Amino acid sequence: MQFPQTLTLSHTMAVMRLKGEASKLVLSYLWWVIEPLLYVAVFYLVFEKLLLRGGEDFLVFLMVGKIPFLWFSKSINAGANALLAGKGVMGQRDFPKHIFPYSVVLEASYKQVVVFLLLFVWLFTQGYSLSQACLWLPLLILSNLSLILSGSMLAALLVVYLQDLRVVISMGTLFLMFASGIFWDVRSIADPEVQQLILTFNPLAFLLDAYRQILMHQTSPDISYLLVLTFLSLVLLGLVHWVYARQSQYIAYKVLS
Amino acid sequence: MAERDWAISADKLSLTFNAGPIWDRHQYQVLKQISFAVKKGETFGVMGRNGCGKSSLLRILAGVIKQSSGSLRFNNIGSRSLLALGLGFNNDLSGRDNALLSLMLQGEEKAEAKEMLEDIQDFSGLGEHFELPVRTYSSGMRSRLGFAVGVTANTDLLLIDETLSVGDQHFKDKAEQVMLEKLNGEQTVIFVSHNSQQVNKLCEHAIWIEQGVIQAGGEAKIVAKEYQRFMRDIK
Predict the structure, then answer these.
(1) I need a labelling partner for A26 at 20 to 30 A (CA). Which of A69, A162, A222, B235 fits?
(2) Cβ-defined contact of B101 to A23 (cutoff 8 Å)
């Protein structure tokens, strides 16, 4: 099976899963939007209303951070399970195993397109205007996607080798939720060194901050960092692909035994 | 066997699994030194009780997993596909969508796969149910769908796991008919069953596996008899 064919297959699998999921739910496709909004609502209630810790424009701040984060965390957690969930078909023939994490990431990304569009429209109605900085948005989203894709591929592979890691991965995404400045602003950290440390070594914190810089403050993010991050993610993706290709039958063996 | 006549040659195939936590790791051998040869275009039988290792052997032959030791050679066999009892279907999707995915996983292009769907619907006899989610299917309907996909796809080697044992009599007859047609056709088929009569009916040659070891091999008629005697004795 050639690579373009595996992409078509991943896409078809993703679309069908979306269709299958929607067919079971009363609110069907509306959940794509309701779910992220519920997350935002819970955070808003706790931080703005109960703890009174929100601050100016907290709802916008929260949405612009939480919505891209959900794309990441849902993809990684579903990705961690992607190969194991493919057990049924994996037992029948040998094919490139990367289609499983790919289809999981595509599935989350298709939902994300809709949610992003609504977010942009909503921001516009809130008086946030388009600026030149928005031109960097495609690069930012591409960078985010490459991080998600390589992360999901890696997570799926690791869990196949050691199922115990599934717990660690889900703890890891929870940790990242606290450490990436979703309900607090990385830029509010008083010590500039600590601030820089987080923005450098936690790519997710950088990405979420970049979304805010572009969408809320009409400022361009650090482009060189963005390019390096994209490049490194793609290198990681290439490496993981290499392992997938070499270990295809071993992956099936681990999943089936 | 002449060079152009053989399709599969297995030599001393063994398969070992590891299990247990790190402080109590143990190995168990599923297959031990399995050797046999299959002719081109033949329907070859594999008999044995549940848990004897026949499904693992099928997986090795399908290229899903690799044997731990021994060699496996194929002659002019490109695509291989294992047909098991409606496994691997997504319950939320319709029979049509599942069939499409199965065909694509077997390497068919999407457009080609779509063209095959009408044949699959026909052969499966599912009628309107073809458009309903697979979760609404009975086990017989699932296996009919699986079998229809398996026989419609273009594979050089078809591996069938117990499929004929499920489904109503009408479908069973239809499936056996197709198998008999394939017996005389180009496609090489490996048929796995615990039912010796079926193997006897459909296959020319067969092996019988018990606890991962070949107990008998050769003409299906003779192997089936030995297997039947064994099964009678342990009852």
Answers:
(1) A69
(2) no
